[in-house]
Hints:
Elements: E1 7-9, E2 22-26, H1 30-33, H2 41-57, E3 60-63, H3 66-76, E4 83-85, H4 100-110, E5 116-120, H5 129-142, E6 149-152, H6 163-166, E7 173-175, H7 184-189, E8 191-196, H8 205-212, E9 217-220, H9 225-229, E10 234-236, H10 241-254, H11 259-269, H12 274-289
Parallel strand pairs: 1-2, 2-3, 3-4, 5-6, 5-8, 6-7, 8-9, 9-10
Helix pairs in contact: 8-11
Amino acid sequence: MADMHLLDIPHFNVPWRYLSKCVVTIHDIIPYKMKQFFPSFAKQIYLKLNLTLIRRFAKKVVTVSAYTAQDLQVEFGFSAQQMQVIYNAVDHTIFFPETKAGDEEFLGKYQLPQNYFLTVGIGKEHKNILFIVEAMKQLWQEDNSIPPLLLAGTGGTLPEYLQTAVDGWEKYIFLCPHLPYVELRNLYKNATALLYPSLYEGFGFPVIEAQACGTAVLAANASVLPEVLQDSAFFFDPRDRDSFLQVFRMFWQQNKNLKQWQQAGFANAARFQWQQSARAMVQLYDTLAD
């Protein structure tokens, strides 16, 4: 190990002994920014110590978005010069529109409704799923033709913090079982839209994966999401139910003619290619090695 030129560490959990040779990728600082959901004092101290050491001694810091880079500058004093943004991406050999035959097989296999809105990440409270559940309940009371909500992200188990909100609404709220990775495209593609109210993301894989599968996205206008989605999605304030309701109703009125949003989503998802990210990393290695 002592003879190496570079050590690539894809997380802020770094080996202190070799830090001066490390290229460190930082995806987000969610535990620091969302302390109400990550209250462990020991983890807070560990995170602060690691990021301080990375700022002082790492050879280079890679962030997966400009938003994360800005967070590191504001919260921990990282300089723009020591960081480089290299976006995450999606595997376009996996995330693409499934065929109609694939639709029917998938829905039948997991006994899912023919039409549904999808939201993901229900196991983590900063994903803000309770916000969506409560808002959708109001919409179903107004119009029971609105499709049900499919909750994905915990393998079919409902987290305790959602139990009370879901009680009595089982007709409208379904739990998605654990799926093989290759079937995630079926999950996205069969959704009427992905509802993504997350309060904080470092990149936001699900919104890009959904777009690559041809699914419209209604997303929070928070953290990195406007950066990665640009003008290809519907945006709402994730702390204001009226904002979501207004955007949802606008989407629902247009949902018979959403080709423009589908095409905008395809174009946006195409910006994120692993080959491009890998080339950028290799170029960075070459520069640092020289």
